[in-house]
Inverse folding.
């Protein structure tokens, strides 16, 4: 694996293997060697009859860009983070009884934070107008399942 975020995706795959879930990577659509716009989060996992969609976001610096819920006007490029298409897919998953997650990693001067953030919370940050998350926000919002090596909803 190479490129930004690939290390976090490898970490996510190792975690998913340990959960006992049925899971797979949602490969982005490609045209030759170019990625075509897509909206499917990075991973789908199924455990206990519940579907989990997981999008990995990796960043460095003082904060991690959150993205946006709707496309900017005039076909401007959306900000880094969750794309409007990914937000739509995560919303649809949760409407149908599934769970959405953002596995976020931020490496900065104070160290590194990796946290599994519920989509509802990440979405709430976007609705509130936040553009980025600090290490403290990520750490405080993370689901304990990540640290315990299980999917959220499984008993510890």
């Amino acid at each position: 694996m190479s490129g930004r975020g690939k290390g976090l995706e490898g970490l996510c795959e190792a975690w998913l293997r340990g959960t006992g879930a049925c899971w797979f990577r949602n490969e982005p659509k490609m045209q030759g060697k170019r990625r075509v716009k897509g909206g499917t989060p990075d991973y789908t996992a199924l455990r206990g009859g519940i579907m989990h969609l997981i999008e990995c976001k990796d960043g460095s610096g003082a904060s991690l860009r959150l993205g946006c819920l709707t496309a900017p006007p005039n076909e401007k490029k959306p900000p880094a983070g969750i794309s409007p298409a990914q937000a739509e897919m995560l919303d649809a998953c949760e409407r149908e009884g599934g769970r959405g997650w953002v596995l976020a990693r931020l490496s900065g001067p104070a160290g590194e934070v990796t946290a599994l953030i519920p989509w509802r919370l990440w979405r709430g940050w976007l609705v509130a107008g936040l553009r980025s998350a600090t290490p403290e926000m990520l750490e405080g919002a993370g689901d304990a399942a990540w640290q315990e090596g299980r999917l959220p909803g499984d008993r510890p």
Remarks:
- The longest helix spans residues 6-19.
- The chain is about 30% helix and 30% strand.
- Helices lie at 6-19, 84-95, 119-127, 135-141, 144-148.
